[in-house]
Amino acid sequence: MTISIYAMIHRSMCFFHKAKIEILFLFFSKPIKRISLVKDSIPIK
Asked: Higher confidence at residue 8 or residue 1?
């Protein structure tokens, strides 16, 4: 019984860990693109 519960927890943790990485990647890749676009649009004196 306990082994199956640990297995379920382990699977859910792995799934959420992968999903978290994908969400963070998407979340951070968009602002970085926006910042780079803003930097490109601002003329350097």
From this structure: 8
